[in-house]
Amino acid sequence: MGEVLHIVGAGMAGSEAAWQAAEAGVPVILHEMRPQVGTFAHRTGLCAEMVCSNSFRSDDDRNNAVGQLHWEMRAANGLLMRMADRHKLPAGGALAVDRDAFATDVTEVLSDHPLITIAPGEITDLPADGHWIIATGPLTSAALGRSILGLTGAEALAFFDAIAPIVHADTIDMDIAWRQSRYDKGETEAERTAYINCPMTRDEYEAFIDALLAAEKTEFHAGEESSAPDPTPYFDGCLPIEVMAERGRDTLRFGPMKPVGLTNIHRPADKPYAVVQLRRDNALGTLYNIVGFQTKMKYGAQTDVFKMIPGLQNASFARLGGIHRNTFLNSPSLLDDRMRLRARPNLRFAGQVTGVEGYVESAAMGLLAGRMAAAGILGRDLPPPPGTTAMGALVHHITGGADARTFQPMNVNFGLFPPVEAKGGRRGRKDRYPAYTDRAKADFQAWLAA
User: Can the keyword tRNA processing be found in this entry's annotation (predicted)?
Assistant: First the structure.
Protein backbone atom coordinates (compact mmCIF):
# COMPACT_ATOMS: atom_id res chain seq x y z
CA MET A 1 0.00 0.00 0.00
CA GLY A 2 1.26 3.44 -0.93
CA GLU A 3 0.90 6.67 1.00
CA VAL A 4 -2.45 7.08 2.70
CA LEU A 5 -4.78 10.07 2.59
CA HIS A 6 -6.58 10.81 5.86
CA ILE A 7 -9.89 12.67 5.67
CA VAL A 8 -11.54 14.05 8.79
CA GLY A 9 -15.33 14.25 8.54
CA ALA A 10 -17.71 12.09 6.51
CA GLY A 11 -20.18 14.79 5.56
CA MET A 12 -20.77 15.96 2.00
CA ALA A 13 -17.23 17.19 1.42
CA GLY A 14 -15.42 14.36 3.18
CA SER A 15 -17.49 11.64 1.53
CA GLU A 16 -16.94 13.06 -1.95
CA ALA A 17 -13.22 13.64 -1.28
CA ALA A 18 -12.79 10.03 -0.13
CA TRP A 19 -14.51 8.69 -3.25
CA GLN A 20 -12.48 10.86 -5.64
CA ALA A 21 -9.13 10.00 -4.06
CA ALA A 22 -9.88 6.28 -3.88
CA GLU A 23 -11.06 6.24 -7.50
CA ALA A 24 -7.69 7.81 -8.39
CA GLY A 25 -5.98 4.83 -6.73
CA VAL A 26 -5.00 6.38 -3.37
CA PRO A 27 -5.82 4.52 -0.13
CA VAL A 28 -8.09 6.57 2.13
CA ILE A 29 -8.88 6.49 5.84
CA LEU A 30 -12.11 8.40 6.45
CA HIS A 31 -12.37 9.53 10.07
CA GLU A 32 -15.88 10.23 11.42
CA MET A 33 -16.66 11.01 15.07
CA ARG A 34 -20.36 10.20 14.74
CA PRO A 35 -22.12 8.30 16.26
CA GLN A 36 -19.59 7.95 19.08
CA VAL A 37 -19.49 11.73 19.39
CA GLY A 38 -22.80 13.24 18.34
CA THR A 39 -23.95 16.74 17.48
CA PHE A 40 -27.26 18.42 18.22
CA ALA A 41 -28.03 18.67 14.46
CA HIS A 42 -27.22 15.13 13.26
CA ARG A 43 -29.44 12.10 13.88
CA THR A 44 -27.25 9.26 12.59
CA GLY A 45 -23.70 8.13 12.05
CA LEU A 46 -24.23 7.82 8.29
CA CYS A 47 -21.96 9.46 5.75
CA ALA A 48 -23.35 12.53 3.93
CA GLU A 49 -26.29 12.94 6.31
CA MET A 50 -28.49 15.84 5.18
CA VAL A 51 -29.18 18.02 8.22
CA CYS A 52 -31.11 21.10 7.09
CA SER A 53 -32.95 20.53 3.81
CA ASN A 54 -33.29 17.53 1.53
CA SER A 55 -32.69 19.64 -1.58
CA PHE A 56 -29.59 20.16 -3.70
CA ARG A 57 -31.47 23.13 -5.21
CA SER A 58 -31.87 23.84 -8.94
CA ASP A 59 -30.89 21.11 -11.40
CA ASP A 60 -31.07 23.49 -14.39
CA ASP A 61 -27.56 23.36 -15.87
CA ARG A 62 -28.51 25.81 -18.62
CA ASN A 63 -29.68 28.84 -16.67
CA ASN A 64 -28.57 28.30 -13.06
CA ALA A 65 -25.13 28.30 -11.44
CA VAL A 66 -26.11 25.54 -8.98
CA GLY A 67 -27.35 23.40 -11.85
CA GLN A 68 -24.05 24.00 -13.64
CA LEU A 69 -22.23 22.83 -10.51
CA HIS A 70 -24.36 19.64 -10.58
CA TRP A 71 -23.31 19.15 -14.21
CA GLU A 72 -19.62 19.53 -13.39
CA MET A 73 -19.82 17.08 -10.50
CA ARG A 74 -21.56 14.51 -12.68
CA ALA A 75 -18.91 15.02 -15.38
CA ALA A 76 -16.20 14.42 -12.76
CA ASN A 77 -17.66 11.08 -11.62
CA GLY A 78 -19.16 12.64 -8.49
CA LEU A 79 -20.50 10.04 -6.07
CA LEU A 80 -22.98 12.34 -4.37
CA MET A 81 -24.63 13.43 -7.60
CA ARG A 82 -24.95 9.79 -8.66
CA MET A 83 -26.58 8.91 -5.35
CA ALA A 84 -28.81 12.00 -5.52
CA ASP A 85 -30.00 11.00 -9.00
CA ARG A 86 -30.71 7.48 -7.72
CA HIS A 87 -32.88 8.77 -4.86
CA LYS A 88 -34.42 11.78 -6.57
CA LEU A 89 -37.86 13.03 -5.50
CA PRO A 90 -40.26 15.23 -7.49
CA ALA A 91 -39.38 18.86 -6.68
CA GLY A 92 -40.43 21.01 -9.61
CA GLY A 93 -37.02 21.50 -11.22
CA ALA A 94 -34.98 21.16 -8.05
CA LEU A 95 -32.90 18.10 -7.16
CA ALA A 96 -34.46 16.88 -3.91
CA VAL A 97 -33.74 13.43 -2.45
CA ASP A 98 -34.96 10.89 0.04
CA ARG A 99 -32.39 11.90 2.65
CA ASP A 100 -32.20 8.62 4.61
CA ALA A 101 -31.95 6.40 1.53
CA PHE A 102 -29.37 8.78 0.05
CA ALA A 103 -27.10 8.74 3.12
CA THR A 104 -27.47 4.97 3.55
CA ASP A 105 -26.42 4.38 -0.04
CA VAL A 106 -23.45 6.76 0.18
CA THR A 107 -22.29 4.98 3.34
CA GLU A 108 -22.59 1.54 1.73
CA VAL A 109 -20.70 2.57 -1.41
CA LEU A 110 -17.84 4.09 0.59
CA SER A 111 -17.71 1.15 3.01
CA ASP A 112 -17.54 -1.32 0.12
CA HIS A 113 -14.74 0.49 -1.74
CA PRO A 114 -11.53 -1.58 -1.45
CA LEU A 115 -9.35 1.51 -0.92
CA ILE A 116 -11.53 3.24 1.70
CA THR A 117 -11.49 2.49 5.42
CA ILE A 118 -14.03 4.26 7.61
CA ALA A 119 -12.46 4.85 11.03
CA PRO A 120 -14.84 5.81 13.86
CA GLY A 121 -13.69 8.27 16.50
CA GLU A 122 -12.88 11.94 17.00
CA ILE A 123 -9.71 13.63 15.74
CA THR A 124 -8.88 16.36 18.24
CA ASP A 125 -5.59 17.77 16.92
CA LEU A 126 -4.28 18.79 13.53
CA PRO A 127 -1.58 16.26 12.56
CA ALA A 128 1.94 17.53 11.98
CA ASP A 129 2.70 15.09 9.15
CA GLY A 130 1.00 12.86 6.61
CA HIS A 131 -1.59 13.80 4.01
CA TRP A 132 -4.84 15.16 5.45
CA ILE A 133 -8.08 16.80 4.35
CA ILE A 134 -10.07 18.51 7.10
CA ALA A 135 -13.74 18.40 6.09
CA THR A 136 -15.42 18.71 9.45
CA GLY A 137 -18.07 21.14 8.29
CA PRO A 138 -19.97 23.75 10.26
CA LEU A 139 -20.07 21.60 13.41
CA THR A 140 -16.33 21.15 13.85
CA SER A 141 -15.79 19.79 17.36
CA ALA A 142 -14.59 22.17 20.05
CA ALA A 143 -11.28 20.33 20.50
CA LEU A 144 -10.38 20.31 16.81
CA GLY A 145 -11.60 23.90 16.51
CA ARG A 146 -9.13 24.96 19.20
CA SER A 147 -6.36 23.13 17.37
CA ILE A 148 -7.23 24.92 14.11
CA LEU A 149 -7.23 28.28 15.85
CA GLY A 150 -3.96 27.52 17.56
CA LEU A 151 -2.31 26.80 14.22
CA THR A 152 -3.84 29.55 12.12
CA GLY A 153 -3.76 32.30 14.73
CA ALA A 154 -6.91 33.65 13.10
CA GLU A 155 -9.88 34.95 15.03
CA ALA A 156 -12.84 32.59 14.94
CA LEU A 157 -15.61 33.40 12.52
CA ALA A 158 -19.10 32.02 13.01
CA PHE A 159 -22.68 32.59 11.98
CA PHE A 160 -25.81 30.64 12.87
CA ASP A 161 -27.60 28.23 10.56
CA ALA A 162 -31.26 27.39 11.13
CA ILE A 163 -33.11 24.13 10.36
CA ALA A 164 -36.60 23.97 8.84
CA PRO A 165 -39.38 21.78 10.33
CA ILE A 166 -40.78 18.61 8.72
CA VAL A 167 -44.49 17.72 8.71
CA HIS A 168 -46.26 14.34 8.41
CA ALA A 169 -48.04 14.55 5.05
CA ASP A 170 -51.21 12.80 6.22
CA THR A 171 -51.81 15.55 8.77
CA ILE A 172 -51.99 18.32 6.14
CA ASP A 173 -55.55 19.40 5.35
CA MET A 174 -55.80 19.00 1.58
CA ASP A 175 -59.27 20.53 1.56
CA ILE A 176 -57.41 23.80 2.17
CA ALA A 177 -53.97 23.10 0.68
CA TRP A 178 -53.25 21.98 -2.90
CA ARG A 179 -50.41 20.47 -4.91
CA GLN A 180 -48.65 22.66 -7.46
CA SER A 181 -45.11 23.75 -8.34
CA ARG A 182 -44.71 27.46 -8.90
CA TYR A 183 -45.70 28.34 -12.49
CA ASP A 184 -46.47 24.60 -12.96
CA LYS A 185 -42.75 24.08 -13.51
CA GLY A 186 -41.61 20.57 -14.41
CA GLU A 187 -41.72 18.10 -17.28
CA THR A 188 -43.89 15.49 -15.54
CA GLU A 189 -47.10 15.65 -13.53
CA ALA A 190 -45.12 14.65 -10.42
CA GLU A 191 -42.77 17.61 -10.97
CA ARG A 192 -45.63 20.01 -11.66
CA THR A 193 -47.32 18.96 -8.39
CA ALA A 194 -44.19 18.56 -6.26
CA TYR A 195 -45.12 21.17 -3.62
CA ILE A 196 -48.04 21.43 -1.22
CA ASN A 197 -49.31 25.01 -0.94
CA CYS A 198 -51.08 26.57 2.03
CA PRO A 199 -52.82 29.90 1.21
CA MET A 200 -53.20 32.89 3.52
CA THR A 201 -55.51 35.88 3.40
CA ARG A 202 -54.15 39.26 4.42
CA ASP A 203 -55.70 38.96 7.91
CA GLU A 204 -54.25 35.46 8.37
CA TYR A 205 -50.83 36.66 7.24
CA GLU A 206 -50.85 39.66 9.59
CA ALA A 207 -51.89 37.47 12.54
CA PHE A 208 -49.13 34.98 11.63
CA ILE A 209 -46.49 37.72 11.56
CA ASP A 210 -47.67 39.05 14.95
CA ALA A 211 -47.40 35.58 16.49
CA LEU A 212 -44.03 34.96 14.86
CA LEU A 213 -42.55 38.17 16.25
CA ALA A 214 -43.97 37.56 19.73
CA ALA A 215 -42.92 33.89 20.01
CA GLU A 216 -40.23 32.78 22.45
CA LYS A 217 -36.88 32.15 20.79
CA THR A 218 -34.22 29.58 21.65
CA GLU A 219 -31.05 30.20 23.60
CA PHE A 220 -27.89 29.11 21.87
CA HIS A 221 -26.43 25.72 22.71
CA ALA A 222 -23.52 25.51 25.15
CA GLY A 223 -20.38 26.89 23.57
CA GLU A 224 -22.28 28.53 20.72
CA GLU A 225 -22.43 32.07 22.03
CA SER A 226 -21.39 34.42 19.29
CA SER A 227 -18.35 36.57 19.91
CA ALA A 228 -19.41 38.82 17.04
CA PRO A 229 -21.20 42.08 17.76
CA ASP A 230 -24.97 42.19 17.45
CA PRO A 231 -26.86 41.54 15.34
CA THR A 232 -26.05 37.82 15.22
CA PRO A 233 -24.19 37.19 11.93
CA TYR A 234 -26.67 34.88 10.23
CA PHE A 235 -25.95 33.70 6.68
CA ASP A 236 -28.39 35.63 4.46
CA GLY A 237 -29.25 32.51 2.44
CA CYS A 238 -30.51 30.70 5.53
CA LEU A 239 -32.17 33.35 7.70
CA PRO A 240 -34.64 32.27 10.39
CA ILE A 241 -38.13 33.37 9.38
CA GLU A 242 -38.52 35.50 12.49
CA VAL A 243 -35.33 37.39 11.61
CA MET A 244 -36.76 38.02 8.13
CA ALA A 245 -40.03 39.20 9.70
CA GLU A 246 -38.13 41.62 11.93
CA ARG A 247 -36.75 43.27 8.78
CA GLY A 248 -40.24 44.23 7.65
CA ARG A 249 -43.76 42.82 7.81
CA ASP A 250 -43.83 42.08 4.08
CA THR A 251 -40.39 40.50 3.89
CA LEU A 252 -41.74 36.94 4.10
CA ARG A 253 -44.49 37.69 1.58
CA PHE A 254 -41.81 38.64 -0.94
CA GLY A 255 -39.55 35.76 0.14
CA PRO A 256 -40.46 32.15 1.01
CA MET A 257 -44.18 33.03 1.30
CA LYS A 258 -44.56 34.76 -2.07
CA PRO A 259 -47.89 33.88 -3.73
CA VAL A 260 -46.85 34.36 -7.37
CA GLY A 261 -47.17 31.55 -9.93
CA LEU A 262 -49.75 29.64 -7.90
CA THR A 263 -53.51 29.17 -8.29
CA ASN A 264 -55.62 27.80 -5.44
CA ILE A 265 -57.56 24.90 -7.00
CA HIS A 266 -60.20 25.16 -4.29
CA ARG A 267 -60.84 28.86 -4.94
CA PRO A 268 -59.34 29.74 -8.35
CA ALA A 269 -60.78 33.26 -8.41
CA ASP A 270 -59.21 34.25 -5.08
CA LYS A 271 -55.56 35.28 -5.22
CA PRO A 272 -53.79 34.34 -1.96
CA TYR A 273 -52.09 37.18 -0.09
CA ALA A 274 -49.27 34.80 0.89
CA VAL A 275 -48.52 31.10 0.40
CA VAL A 276 -46.55 28.66 2.55
CA GLN A 277 -44.97 25.88 0.46
CA LEU A 278 -44.01 22.40 1.64
CA ARG A 279 -41.63 20.18 -0.34
CA ARG A 280 -41.57 16.39 -0.33
CA ASP A 281 -38.83 15.08 1.95
CA ASN A 282 -38.81 11.30 1.36
CA ALA A 283 -39.52 8.77 -1.40
CA LEU A 284 -42.70 7.53 0.27
CA GLY A 285 -44.12 11.04 0.22
CA THR A 286 -45.01 10.77 3.92
CA LEU A 287 -42.88 13.73 5.02
CA TYR A 288 -42.81 17.33 3.77
CA ASN A 289 -40.50 20.13 4.88
CA ILE A 290 -41.72 23.72 5.13
CA VAL A 291 -39.72 25.56 2.49
CA GLY A 292 -37.64 28.47 3.76
CA PHE A 293 -38.98 28.12 7.32
CA GLN A 294 -35.71 27.84 9.21
CA THR A 295 -36.40 29.04 12.73
CA LYS A 296 -34.99 29.66 16.20
CA MET A 297 -38.39 29.63 17.95
CA LYS A 298 -38.74 27.34 20.94
CA TYR A 299 -40.43 24.04 20.17
CA GLY A 300 -43.72 24.84 21.91
CA ALA A 301 -43.91 28.18 20.14
CA GLN A 302 -43.17 26.57 16.78
CA THR A 303 -46.10 24.20 17.13
CA ASP A 304 -48.47 27.03 18.08
CA VAL A 305 -47.32 29.41 15.35
CA PHE A 306 -47.07 26.89 12.51
CA LYS A 307 -50.54 25.53 13.25
CA MET A 308 -51.84 29.01 12.42
CA ILE A 309 -51.01 28.26 8.78
CA PRO A 310 -54.20 27.27 6.92
CA GLY A 311 -53.96 23.57 6.12
CA LEU A 312 -51.54 22.90 8.99
CA GLN A 313 -54.00 23.48 11.83
CA ASN A 314 -53.89 19.74 12.68
CA ALA A 315 -50.30 19.14 11.55
CA SER A 316 -48.04 16.64 13.27
CA PHE A 317 -44.33 17.44 13.09
CA ALA A 318 -41.71 14.78 12.44
CA ARG A 319 -39.03 17.33 13.28
CA LEU A 320 -39.22 20.89 14.53
CA GLY A 321 -36.79 23.61 13.52
CA GLY A 322 -33.53 24.39 15.25
CA ILE A 323 -30.50 26.62 15.19
CA HIS A 324 -26.80 25.85 15.38
CA ARG A 325 -23.44 27.45 15.00
CA ASN A 326 -21.64 27.28 11.68
CA THR A 327 -17.88 27.77 11.97
CA PHE A 328 -15.66 28.59 9.01
CA LEU A 329 -12.12 29.69 8.24
CA ASN A 330 -11.07 33.04 6.87
CA SER A 331 -9.96 31.04 3.85
CA PRO A 332 -8.70 33.88 1.62
CA SER A 333 -6.03 34.64 4.19
CA LEU A 334 -5.23 31.02 5.11
CA LEU A 335 -5.53 28.72 2.08
CA ASP A 336 -3.66 28.55 -1.22
CA ASP A 337 -5.37 27.75 -4.52
CA ARG A 338 -4.75 24.01 -3.96
CA MET A 339 -6.84 24.35 -0.77
CA ARG A 340 -3.76 23.79 1.39
CA LEU A 341 -3.17 25.58 4.66
CA ARG A 342 -0.29 27.92 3.93
CA ALA A 343 1.12 27.44 7.43
CA ARG A 344 1.11 23.65 7.03
CA PRO A 345 0.74 22.48 3.40
CA ASN A 346 0.19 18.81 4.35
CA LEU A 347 -3.29 19.92 5.48
CA ARG A 348 -6.07 20.68 3.03
CA PHE A 349 -9.50 21.98 3.98
CA ALA A 350 -12.76 21.28 2.18
CA GLY A 351 -16.47 21.90 2.51
CA GLN A 352 -18.38 24.41 4.59
CA VAL A 353 -15.47 24.98 6.96
CA THR A 354 -13.76 26.78 4.03
CA GLY A 355 -16.60 29.28 3.67
CA VAL A 356 -18.80 27.81 0.97
CA GLU A 357 -22.47 27.46 1.79
CA GLY A 358 -24.73 24.61 0.76
CA TYR A 359 -24.62 20.85 0.25
CA VAL A 360 -23.61 21.06 -3.40
CA GLU A 361 -20.90 23.64 -2.86
CA SER A 362 -19.48 21.63 0.06
CA ALA A 363 -19.44 18.42 -1.95
CA ALA A 364 -17.81 20.21 -4.90
CA MET A 365 -14.98 21.49 -2.71
CA GLY A 366 -14.56 17.97 -1.38
CA LEU A 367 -14.35 16.69 -4.93
CA LEU A 368 -11.56 19.16 -5.72
CA ALA A 369 -9.68 18.57 -2.47
CA GLY A 370 -9.82 14.79 -2.98
CA ARG A 371 -8.54 15.03 -6.54
CA MET A 372 -5.82 17.55 -5.62
CA ALA A 373 -4.63 15.50 -2.64
CA ALA A 374 -4.57 12.30 -4.69
CA ALA A 375 -2.60 14.01 -7.46
CA GLY A 376 -0.05 15.26 -4.92
CA ILE A 377 0.39 11.80 -3.40
CA LEU A 378 0.86 10.34 -6.90
CA GLY A 379 3.55 12.91 -7.71
CA ARG A 380 1.50 15.26 -9.84
CA ASP A 381 0.19 18.77 -9.43
CA LEU A 382 -3.46 19.45 -10.18
CA PRO A 383 -4.38 23.10 -10.65
CA PRO A 384 -7.93 24.23 -9.88
CA PRO A 385 -10.46 24.40 -12.72
CA PRO A 386 -10.64 27.70 -14.62
CA GLY A 387 -12.53 30.49 -12.91
CA THR A 388 -15.02 30.38 -15.77
CA THR A 389 -16.40 27.11 -14.35
CA ALA A 390 -18.68 26.79 -11.32
CA MET A 391 -16.09 24.85 -9.31
CA GLY A 392 -13.31 27.16 -10.39
CA ALA A 393 -15.32 30.27 -9.51
CA LEU A 394 -16.03 28.90 -6.02
CA VAL A 395 -12.50 27.81 -5.20
CA HIS A 396 -11.12 31.10 -6.54
CA HIS A 397 -13.54 33.01 -4.33
CA ILE A 398 -12.56 31.24 -1.12
CA THR A 399 -8.82 31.14 -1.79
CA GLY A 400 -8.24 34.71 -2.84
CA GLY A 401 -11.08 36.19 -4.83
CA ALA A 402 -12.96 37.36 -1.74
CA ASP A 403 -11.85 40.21 0.51
CA ALA A 404 -10.50 38.58 3.68
CA ARG A 405 -11.64 41.57 5.76
CA THR A 406 -15.29 41.02 4.90
CA PHE A 407 -15.28 37.31 4.06
CA GLN A 408 -18.62 35.54 4.51
CA PRO A 409 -19.91 32.14 3.34
CA MET A 410 -21.06 32.10 -0.26
CA ASN A 411 -23.32 29.97 -2.45
CA VAL A 412 -22.27 29.48 -6.06
CA ASN A 413 -23.74 32.17 -8.32
CA PHE A 414 -23.00 33.79 -11.64
CA GLY A 415 -21.67 36.87 -9.85
CA LEU A 416 -18.53 34.81 -9.06
CA PHE A 417 -17.90 34.09 -12.76
CA PRO A 418 -15.86 36.37 -15.05
CA PRO A 419 -18.21 38.45 -17.24
CA VAL A 420 -19.30 36.92 -20.52
CA GLU A 421 -20.74 38.44 -23.66
CA ALA A 422 -23.94 36.80 -24.85
CA LYS A 423 -24.32 36.08 -28.55
CA GLY A 424 -24.92 39.23 -30.55
CA GLY A 425 -23.97 41.35 -27.56
CA ARG A 426 -27.34 40.81 -25.85
CA ARG A 427 -27.14 41.21 -22.11
CA GLY A 428 -30.49 39.91 -20.82
CA ARG A 429 -30.49 36.99 -18.41
CA LYS A 430 -32.18 34.77 -20.98
CA ASP A 431 -29.08 35.03 -23.18
CA ARG A 432 -26.39 35.70 -20.59
CA TYR A 433 -26.96 32.70 -18.31
CA PRO A 434 -26.66 30.10 -21.11
CA ALA A 435 -23.52 31.93 -22.25
CA TYR A 436 -22.04 31.39 -18.78
CA THR A 437 -22.96 27.71 -18.68
CA ASP A 438 -21.89 26.98 -22.28
CA ARG A 439 -18.48 28.46 -21.54
CA ALA A 440 -18.27 26.65 -18.20
CA LYS A 441 -19.05 23.26 -19.73
CA ALA A 442 -16.42 23.64 -22.44
CA ASP A 443 -13.76 24.84 -20.00
CA PHE A 444 -14.55 22.17 -17.41
CA GLN A 445 -14.35 19.40 -19.98
CA ALA A 446 -10.98 20.75 -21.12
CA TRP A 447 -9.79 20.78 -17.47
CA LEU A 448 -10.90 17.16 -16.98
CA ALA A 449 -9.18 16.09 -20.19
CA ALA A 450 -5.94 17.76 -19.17
Answer: yes
Residue-wise burial string across 156-187, b where 16 or more C-beta atoms lie within 10 A, e elsewhere: bbbbbbbbbbbbebeebeeebbbbbbbeebbe
Binding residue ranges for FAD: 9-14
pLDDT in tens, 87-146: 999 998 899 999 999 999 999 999 999 999 999 988 888 888 999 999 987 677 777 777
| Annotated binding-site ranges | 9-14
Give the type of residue at 260: V
Helix or strand or coil: residue 262?
coil
| Digit-coded pLDDT (tens) for 242-267 | 989 999 999 999 999 999 999 999 99
Is the pTM higher than 0.85? The answer reads no
- 311 & 336 share domain: no
C-beta separation of 79 from 371 below 8 A: no
Please check whether residues 166 and 311 belong to one and the same domain: yes
Residue 312 sits in the same domain as residue 345: no
For residue 233, what are the domain limits? 162-319
